[in-house]
């Protein structure tokens, strides 16, 4: 039986226990000791799940209070000076939370660190802040304590840590130009590597054999200096008393494969779901003392795996490598829900097609037993169940719609463009009559416990349709009146009827299905429940028109219709894997085109189609960029090009880097784009400035991921910086993102300050 293991397990808990514990702690309802107790219970539970499945190791260090990069930054003492961390004291948990959120139950609030997407996923990490001469030390003991926890419970621990080059690549600092590729960051290795070596030696002292060291940047196009640094780094870490499993994922190592295999490490993990073609070249390069960890079960999607197909591919590899072939998920299981056992109400046929984290471990066990040549009766039954489920899915009539497929073919002849922006904006300004520095929000307003209870009672049948509509209308009116009162220029209806910006639309589109407890961590305590796109997508009926028209009827000010864009609906769902993603995205675009046209027909003159996942979907390798960018931008235009030039189309993007995709953003041709810039101090505007972006832009001035209320002067200063880079007549004033997760008192205070900042800007322009 081949060894199998996981690279990491979901940390949030099957019922989001970590989320509730974190939020109770931040609100002062739980002590730190109570929070830490929840963490210990979750770790023990998740280790037990993996051990029962037969995993050779349990990963330790995959658990994090916010995200694993922040966890590591605090462990090595990389705390920015504004958090007043003594270099002689351990970094406390509240310092970690202040770095993530700007505040914690103790300590002085400070500006939170920047947050951005983890490669091409919807998971976020806190960006390490780097500075010349930065020093490092072992400043937290939690990793070592967790290794002891696992050992005391009888488990064989495999600690998981970020590799030094990946950690540096992800970091930013003013002195390094803010770019990932800046070679100046490599100068920090002299201070960083001794601390890495100390950590590994301390791990070895805890009787640990293997350490998983994650270097996902090996799946990127790396500059020569960064490639050259790998040999230096791993020669330094080679004699620390532990065996190193170098883990890569999310794409093909390609030109970095020989580099990775040639390093002084004892094992190499490859993502063979995203890049199956690298298997045979890797086997050819593997040294006789190296293990190959084959990532053959998807850690990113939730469909059952074809174990027969994998077995045929892997059988000759196992014959050659023997026990040096390990089986694993493609990446950490952090990106999928915990367990199908919690899905009591999901359609049985769909349920049979799915595999969550716990089931993926079972799949690895069945595959391992299959490769052994003498599987047990239980393994044979499991493999037969797997075959029947895959066959049923392939033959199911609910997947394909001839009507949708015909419309998709016809869409090639649908216009994908509008009048030139200069002509459109003139018409829009005449119609909307907006002042300089117009103010708006991104869409959602606080989702209070009362609103969530209202939706829950309606869905369970405890509240009638009429009573639900009455209460939702009352909330919409309250939000509209508030916005009028404080003086916002373009209003929103607040989205009280929406549980999530993707799930809400998926529930109203054909081809989607939903779980009850399929939660996945996005960042910190923020969890999402991605829909399942299992078949062809269409829109049976209008989804937002009635609510938007009602909101517009309450005011003379323009109210934005709010939609989630096709790329984001695609990226933030678990997408069918039986056709190219491009085709599914175009189906989504056609469904949204119908909705955009209906909004315009209903008198909505401003329509926002959010695409925060546009950059996230970019392939890691540049050779694949243009194809993706072409169909992604085309899908947005397909959704929006059916309206007249007088209708103003907005889009929103957040927590992404735009420098290298500006032509594609311009090709989307939105009239107004809003972006996140408050955490990054307007850094992102440099891309729009250098590109001479021609359309309107709203650089966010209010960091909605922190409970801190921004000062008027601070926001004015941010907008003045924006005005020094871009034409002032093209600038809007808005928050970084939606306000769903914020509380009303801080939201009211922040938006009042934002409107005051806009007025100050108009007076001083």
TrEMBL record:
Keywords of the record: Amino-acid biosynthesis, Metal-binding, Methionine biosynthesis, Methyltransferase, Repeat, Transferase, Zinc
Organism superkingdom: Bacteria
Binding site for 5-methyltetrahydropteroyltri-L-glutamate: 16-19, 117, 122, 526-527, 572, 616
Uppermost EC category: transferase
PANTHER family xref list: 5-METHYLTETRAHYDROPTEROYLTRIGLUTAMATE--HOMOCYSTEINE METHYLTRANSFERASE
Cobalamin-independent methionine synthase MetE C-terminal/archaeal domain mapped to chain residues: 438-759
Protein known as: 5-methyltetrahydropteroyltriglutamate--homocysteine methyltransferase
Residues forming the catalytic site: 705 (proton donor)
């Amino acid at each position: 039986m081949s060894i199998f293991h996981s690279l990491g397990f979901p940390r949030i808990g099957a019922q989001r226990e970590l989320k509730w514990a974190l939020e109770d702690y931040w609100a002062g309802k739980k002590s730190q000791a109570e929070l830490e107790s929840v963490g210990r219970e979750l770790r023990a539970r998740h280790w037990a799940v993996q051990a029962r499945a037969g995993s050779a190791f349990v990963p330790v260090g995959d658990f994090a209070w916010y995200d694993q990069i922040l966890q590591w930054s605090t462990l090595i003492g990389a705390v920015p000076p504004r958090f007043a961390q003594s270099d002689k004291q351990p970094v406390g948990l509240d310092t970690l939370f202040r770095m993530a959120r700007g505040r914690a139950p103790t300590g002085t609030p400070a500006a939170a660190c920047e947050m951005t997407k983890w490669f091409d996923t919807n998971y976020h990490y806190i960006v390490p802040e780097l500075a010349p001469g930065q020093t490092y030390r072992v400043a937290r003991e939690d990793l070592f304590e967790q290794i002891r926890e696992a050992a005391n419970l009888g488990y064989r621990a495999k600690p998981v840590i970020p590799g030094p080059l990946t950690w540096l690549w992800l970091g930013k600092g003013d002195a390094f130009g803010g770019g990932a590729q800046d070679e100046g960051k490599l100068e920090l290795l002299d201070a960083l590597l001794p601390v890495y070596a100390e950590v590994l030696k301390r791990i070895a002292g805890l009787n640990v054999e293997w350490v998983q060291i994650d270097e996902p940047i090996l799946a990127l196009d790396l500059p020569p200096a960064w490639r050259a640094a790998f040999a230096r780094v791993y020669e330094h870490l080679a004699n620390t008393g532990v065996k190193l499993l170098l883990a890569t994922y999310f794409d093909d190592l390609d030109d970095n494969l020989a580099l990775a295999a040639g390093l002084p490490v004892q094992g190499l993990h490859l993502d063979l779901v995203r890049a199956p073609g690298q298997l045979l070249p890797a086997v050819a390069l593997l040294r006789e003392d190296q293990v190959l960890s084959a990532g053959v079960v998807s850690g990113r999607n939730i469909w059952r795996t074809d174990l027969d197909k994998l077995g045929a591919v892997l059988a000759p590899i196992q014959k050659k490598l023997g026990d040096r072939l390990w089986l694993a998920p493609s990446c950490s299981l952090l990106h999928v829900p915990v367990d199908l056992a919690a899905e009591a109400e999901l359609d049985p046929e769909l349920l049979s097609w799915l595999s969550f984290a716990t089931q993926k471990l079972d799949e690895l066990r069945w595959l391992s037993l299959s490769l052994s040549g003498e599987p047990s009766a239980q393994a044979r039954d499991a493999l037969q169940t797997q075959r029947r489920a895959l066959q049923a899915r392939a033959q199911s009539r609910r997947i394909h719609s001839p009507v949708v497929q015909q419309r998709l073919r016809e869409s090639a002849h649908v216009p994908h463009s509008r009048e030139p922006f200069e002509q459109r904006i003139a018409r829009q300004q005449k119609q909307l009559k907006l002042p300089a520095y117009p103010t708006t929000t991104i869409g959602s307003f606080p989702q209070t416990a009362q609103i969530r209870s209202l939706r829950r009672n309606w869905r369970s049948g405890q509240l009638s349709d009429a009573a639900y509509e009455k209460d939702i209308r009352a909330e919409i009116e309250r939000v509209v009146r508030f916005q009028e009162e404080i003086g916002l220029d373009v209003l929103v209806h607040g989205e009280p009827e929406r549980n999530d910006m993707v799930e809400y639309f998926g529930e109203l589109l054909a081809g989607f299905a939903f779980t009850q407890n399929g939660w996945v961590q996005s960042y910190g305590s923020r969890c999402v429940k991605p829909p399942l796109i299992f078949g062809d997508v269409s829109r049976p009926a209008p989804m937002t028109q009635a609510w938007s028209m009602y909101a517009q009827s309450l005011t003379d000010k323009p109210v934005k219709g709010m939609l989630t864009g096709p790329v984001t609906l695609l990226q933030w769902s678990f997408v069918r894997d039986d056709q190219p993603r491009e085709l599914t995205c175009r189906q989504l675009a056609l469904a949204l085109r119908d909705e955009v046209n209906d909004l315009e027909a209903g008198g909505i003159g401003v329509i926002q189609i959010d695409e925060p996942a546009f950059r996230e979907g970019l392939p890691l390798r540049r050779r694949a960029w243009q194809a993706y960018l072409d169909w992604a931008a085309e899908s947005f235009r397909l959704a929006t090009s059916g309206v007249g030039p007088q209708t103003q189309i907005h889009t929103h993007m957040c927590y992404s880097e735009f420098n290298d995709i500006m032509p594609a953003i311009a090709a989307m041709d939105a009239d107004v784009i809003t972006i996140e810039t408050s955490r990054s101090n307007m850094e992102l505007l440099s891309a729009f400035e250098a590109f001479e972006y021609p359309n309107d832009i709203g650089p966010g001035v209010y960091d909605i991921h922190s409970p801190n209320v921004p000062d008027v002067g601070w926001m004015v200063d941010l907008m003045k910086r924006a005005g020094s880079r871009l034409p002032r007549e093209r600038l809007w004033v808005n928050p970084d993102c939606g306000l769903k997760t914020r509380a009303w008192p801080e939201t009211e205070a922040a938006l009042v300050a934002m409107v005051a900042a806009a007025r100050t800007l108009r007076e001083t322009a």
